[in-house]
Design goal:
The relative contact order is 0.28. This protein has about 110 residues and is of the alpha/beta class. Strand 2 and strand 3 form a beta hairpin. It is built from three helices and eight strands, in the order E-H-E-E-E-E-E-H-E-E-H.
């Protein structure tokens, strides 16, 4: 898994922050069903369960173990949208990537 932060994301990310690819469980019958989300977190507040992933720039992206497992063979680009001071970090994954990953139908990168 390789994450690339584009120029917009690199400029929006502050020196003490990292991008976190999180996993949110949405199914009641299966802990594997869920969805991805992308958020920013301070390096000082990182949880031990979050894994660093191969990213450009180095050590800029961390992932939840379940998200890491689903994205292990993919290259993902992270971008950022801004409206005034508000920032939204996004990826180039399809909007239903979590559901597709759970069913083994996430298209190859």
């Amino acid at each position: 898994m390789t994450f690339l932060l584009d120029a917009l994301a690199r400029n929006a990310l502050r020196p003490h922050e990292v991008v976190v690819v999180d996993w949110h469980v949405t199914g009641l019958c299966c802990a594997d069903s869920g969805e991805f989300s992308v958020r920013v977190m301070s390096r000082g507040k990182l949880h031990r369960k979050l894994r660093p992933v191969d990213a450009t720039p180095h050590d800029a992206v961390y992932a939840h173990p379940t998200a890491w497992a689903h994205l292990a063979a993919r290259d993902v680009t992270v971008s950022c949208r801004r409206i005034g001071p508000m920032r939204w970090f996004t990826t180039d994954l399809p909007p239903d990537a979590g559901l597709r990953a759970c069913m083994g139908r996430l298209p190859p990168a």
